[in-house]
From TrEMBL, chain A:
Residues 8-258 form the ABC transporter domain. The lineage of its organism: Bacteria, Bacillati, Actinomycetota, Actinomycetes, Propionibacteriales. Keywords: ATP-binding, Nucleotide-binding, Transport. The keyword Transport applies. InterPro entries: AAA+_ATPase, ABC_transp_ATP-bind, ABC_transporter-like_ATP-bd, ABC_transporter-like_CS, Oligopep_ABC_C, P-loop_NTPase. Belongs to the ABC transporter superfamily. This is Dipeptide ABC transporter ATP-binding protein. CDD domains: ABC_NikE_OppD_transporters.
From TrEMBL, chain C:
It is a multi-pass membrane protein. InterPro entries: BPD_transp_1_N, MetI-like, MetI-like_sf. It comes from Kribbella albertanoniae. One of its GO terms (biological process) is transmembrane transport. The keyword Ligase does not apply. Keywords: Cell membrane, Membrane, Transmembrane, Transmembrane helix, Transport. Its main location: membrane. This is ABC transporter permease.
């Protein structure tokens, strides 16, 4: 683990959405989208957040940027809790925190030329003159590997991969310290995914960026992350280095997730592995005790009643019966 | 070459669409054959023509699309020339289809039972009561819990995985000889995908149903395929059995595609190989080899001459559409001969 | 569903109060006074004051409204200024003919619109489709009064096949056939706009339904076109169509006022025009209340119908 001061500390973050019902629409329950999530992000690293739909990974990412107001908990960025900042102060702070979205089709305004789209935040936040902002846009667009003449084009004239490059360029314009990437390659073709992942890696080296990389794709997560947070039903299951997650997972859910991943190697098709039964429970009615116990192959009586706490050792895991490091015998090819 | 009779033989299929910008060819000279009980994966990126190939076989092209030429022989009947009435007797009966989006592919206002019983009433002539029994049986077979309750539920009450199970039950209902599955797990979470892939594998082993599985995911191909046809820009660029394809890919596109996929069970390399540029637009197909603009091995010949699917010598049914293997190929072999 | 309906009904009370209050203010802002009706050439201004006091018009507007509201809760809508009959009786007498006219129009409009909309959608971008779309556009554009006068001219005056107006032939008792004869022209006028509008909705929502994935699934099952159309597409296409019924009904009320006037149909619409002319405030308020309740009820019914046709809709 690094000893440097974390750039971002997420502490006991909760985001609940009320479920309303009845004649006076009183709150009868809550969807626990994010439930008591804590992790650190160190400067210069990529923290991957992986999990299936409904695990709260995107809500966590949006809460870091205050695109969602947390129900409870803190998001401490460089020593300031941005979860409680006023709107105005947050707006100034937002230049340090940027986001790259999943869908490059809908996250770019179709009516605005790429050049203006990129220059806009500079004019708004740094009160730069239009010409200066445009000049900066011309620099950045080349940094993300697009020719300058694309500045005069509209988003619909670009391919999916090119649009995602524009999305990245827009995030870079304000020279942020942290970029939250929410499923940035999920909508792209395989060969284009590789281009965008490589670009993100190169930019990190060049600008010393810190990433929070949210994805359901284990391949992309493994390739880009230094450390990984595994989430399930709003809770953190496990936090570890990428190496540890993929070679010695301690949470049964992590192991099941890895087993489920279809490897592009037909020789591995009959490998011994666990395919878990059943669906992910609804976050409106999460199971008591450990949220994973309904699908966990090693669940015991205690798992149904007591919520396991995230351990505080070097490889935190929230499980009453964590896997032993030696148990794992992943097939190498 | 193989002596097993083909269940499905697609020969020089060409499918066109009329658009405002003119006629585009989405599938061009696609040929492949499928033996009974075999699983063929059509793999490719968006715009490769893999879904259009499937819809051409089913005769379900949109109004502006048509099969311009070629043949689709299914049990010695050419589906291209078969009248619509007879095609309807085949659809859902001896050829069934599973679609990508389980959320939108089921009718939201009809119960699961309604939708599943339609095929058995239509093709097998069951009564309503018999159909209901059969549907409950099928739902149980695909692993849906409480089938006698689910049969009266509407699709929105089911999770994505359960809906896809219902779609699979629907496809199986008339014991088809061929199932075409178009990205059946793309919309699902990875643990649910593993369940569904296992279900499909088990069921096709049990019933001996042949399958065309369309996917963009090489991982799914590696898990499911007996044979693989790699498609690019409307053409098959390489076809081989799954082990040969992954162990000894020949076409530069196949090779590049495989290198661009991150693996999780082997240590990560520093960089993923990527393919420069993007898939060409159907309106502006490159001349010669359609991959030449993105190919690291492109020669002058690739720009001008269009490569045919070549049978590699010494290999059992391993074909590749690339000039690099021109010398290695058996002289004079063309699509038609490969298939013969 | 139950608690949803109760909530909707409770919300309805302040809405209806608001609507009637605004109506009350607008009616009173209009120049002229109902007292004018009682005046003769020899009346003095003292007479005016006396009549106004008698009618309660001398009090502040809000007090007048409050009195109206209190009476309303006792089921009393006041007395017509014009002929001193209780408003409730007047309305009761006129409601039947209007409901007959509007109901028949609505049914006729739907019977025409649904099949034609489906036909146009199935033959999208064909001459049939263009004809339907063109005719629908014409049907929406032509004003009620114009269409009404043209129909009267052609079918009543020139051809003499149908009566020019009224609900029954006076002095002949009005048997069933006689009533139907009288209904045809006003229904034709009212149904035209509704049918035209509805045809466009049905057409576009059928086209939308035909493009859905589940239709492709249905085709992949080997189902025939008629099953796909009637079972799979139509039921889905009706969902958006149902939502416009509420809007349609409001438009129909507006149309009925004009149509009843043209055909001298003894319904609420005709009463409206007569009461406006006579500045009969209490009758107008009663009519407004009925219209507001009708629109409110239509919207509520729409929501219920929505839940009936779409199993995904569950009100909580």
């Amino acid at each position: 683990m690094t000893t440097t001061e974390p750039l971002l500390q997420v502490r006991n973050l909760k985001k609940y959405y009320p479920i309303r019902k009845g004649v006076i629409a009183r709150t009868v329950g809550q969807v626990r989208a994010v439930d008591d999530v804590s992790f650190d992000v160190h400067p210069g690293e990529t923290l991957g957040i992986v999990g299936e739909s409904g695990c709260g990974k995107s809500t966590t990412g949006r809460a870091i940027l205050r695109l969602e107001t947390p129900t409870a908990g803190s998001v401490i960025f460089e020593g300031t809790d941005i979860a409680t900042l006023s709107a105005g102060t947050m707006r100034r702070r937002r230049t340090d925190l940027q986001m790259v979205f999943q869908d490059p089709y809908s996250s770019l305004n179709p009516q605005i030329r790429i050049g203006d789209l990129l220059a806009e935040p500079l004019i708004a936040h740094h009160r730069l003159k239009r010409a200066a902002a445009q000049a900066r846009a011309a620099e950045i667009i080349q940094v993300v590997g697009l020719p300058r003449l694309y500045l005069n084009r509209y988003p619909h004239e670009l391919s999916g991969g090119q649009r995602q490059r524009v999305g990245i360029a827009r995030a870079l314009m304000l020279e942020p310290k942290l970029i939250v990437c929410d499923e940035p390659v999920s909508a792209l073709d395989v060969s284009i995914q590789a281009q965008v992942l490589n670009l993100l890696k190169d930019l990190q080296g060049e600008f010393g960026l810190t990433y929070v990389f949210i994805s359901h794709g284990l391949g992309a997560i493994k390739y880009i992350s230094d450390r990984i947070v595994v989430m399930y039903l709003g809770k953190v299951m496990e936090v570890a280095t990428t190496q540890e997650i993929f070679t010695a997972p301690r949470h049964p859910y992590t192991e099941i997730l890895l087993d489920a991943y279809p490897e592009a190697n037909p020789h591995l098709r009959d490998r011994p592995r666990i395919i878990v039964e059943g669906d992910v429970p609804s976050p409106a009615k999460p199971p008591a005790g450990c949220v994973f116990h309904t699908r966990c192959p090693s669940a015991q009586a205690i798992c149904t009643t007591e919520i396991p706490r995230l351990s505080t050792d070097a490889h935190p895991v929230a499980c009453h019966f964590p896997l032993l490091a030696s148990k794992n015998g992943k097939v190498e090819s | 070459m193989t002596t097993t009779p083909a269940l499905l033989q697609v020969g020089n299929l060409k499918t066109e669409f009329r658009t405002d910008q003119g006629t585009v060819t989405a599938v061009d000279e696609v040929s492949f054959r499928l033996a009974a009980g075999e699983t063929l994966c059509l793999v490719g990126e968006s715009g490769s023509g893999k879904s259009v190939t499937a819809l051409s076989i089913m005769g379900l092209l949109a109004d502006n699309g048509r099969v311009a030429h070629g043949s689709i022989l299914f049990e010695d009947q050419d589906l291209v020339t078969l009248p619509e009435r007879q095609l309807r007797g085949i659809r859902g009966n001896s050829i069934a289809m599973i679609f990508q989006e389980p959320m939108t592919s089921l009718n939201p206002v009809l119960t699961i039972g309604d939708q599943l019983s339609e095929t058995v009433i239509l093709h097998l002539g069951l009564s309503r009561a018999q159909a209901r029994e059969r549907v409950i049986e099928l739902l149980a077979k695909v692993g849906i819990p409480r089938p006698e309750e689910i049969v009266d539920d509407y699709p929105h009450r089911l999770s994505g995985g359960m809906r896809q199970r219902a779609m699979i039950a629907m496809a199986l209902s008339c014991a088809p000889k061929l199932i075409i599955a178009d990205e059946p797990t793309t919309a699902l979470d990875v643990t649910i995908q593993a369940q569904i892939l296992k279900l499909i594998r088990d069921l096709s082993a049990e019933t001996g149903t042949a399958m065309i599985l369309i996917t963009h995911d090489l991982g799914v191909v590696a898990e499911m395929a007996d044979r693989v046809a790699v498609m690019y820009a409307g053409q098959v660029v390489e076809e081989a059995d799954v082990f040969t394809l992954f162990d000894e890919p020949k076409h530069p596109y196949t090779i590049a595609l495989m290198r661009s996929v991150p693996h999780i069970s082997t240590p990560a390399g520093d960089r993923l190989a990527s393919i420069s540029g993007s898939v060409p637009s159907l309106l502006q197909m490159p001349t010669g080899c359609r991959f030449h603009e993105r190919c690291p091995h492109a020669m002058d010949r690739c720009r001008d001459d269009r490569p045919e699917l070549l049978q590699l010598s010494g290999q059992n049914r391993h074909t590749v559409r690339c000039w690099l293997y021109d010398d290695a190929a058996q002289p004079g072999t063309t699509d038609a001969k490969v298939l013969a | 569903m139950g608690s949803y309906l109760i909530r909707r009904l409770l919300i309805g009370i302040p809405v209806l109060i608001g609507v009637t209050l605004i109506n009350f203010l607008i009616i009173n802002l209009a120049p002229g006074s109902p007292a004018d009706l009682y005046l003769t050439p020899t009346s003095t201004s003292a007479d005016v004051v006396r009549v106004e006091a008698e009618l309660g018009l001398d009090q502040p507007i809000f007090v007048q409204y409050f009195h109206w509201l209190v009476r309303l809760f006792h089921g009393d809508l006041g007395v017509s200024f014009q002929n001193r009959a209780p408003v409730t009786e007047l309305l009761a007498e006129r409601l039947g003919p209007t409901l007959l006219l509007m109901g028949t129009s609505l049914v006729v409009a739907y019977l025409i619109a649904v099949p034609i909309g489906i036909l146009a959608a199935r033959k999208k971008n064909s001459p049939t489709d263009y004809t339907v779309v063109g005719a629908a556009f014409l049907g929406i554009s032509v004003p009620h009064f114009f269409l009404g006068l043209v129909l009267i001219y052609v079918f009543a005056l020139e051809l003499g096949w149908l009566p020019t107006g009224n609900m029954i032939t006076l002095g002949r008792g009005g048997g069933f056939a006689d009533r139907v004869n009288h209904l045809i022209l006003p229904v034709a006028v009212l149904a035209t706009a509704t049918a035209a509008n509805m045809t466009r909705y049905v057409r576009s929502s059928m086209i939308d339904a035909f493009g859905q994935d589940y239709i492709r699934t249905a085709k992949a099952k080997g189902l025939g076109l008629s099953t796909i159309t009637n079972k799979h597409a139509l039921r889905n296409a009706l969902i958006p169509v149902v939502t416009v019924i509420g809007i349609d009904l409001s438009a129909l009320i507006g149309g009925a006022i004009v149509t009843e006037q043209i055909f001298q149909w003894p319904g609420i619409g005709l009463l409206t025009i007569q009461s406006i002319g006579a500045r009969d405030y209490s009758v107008l308020m009663g009519i407004n209340l009925i219209a507001a309740v009708a629109v409110f009820g239509a919207n509520l019914l729409t929501d219920i119908a929505y839940a009936v046709v779409d199993p995904r809709v569950a009100y909580a």
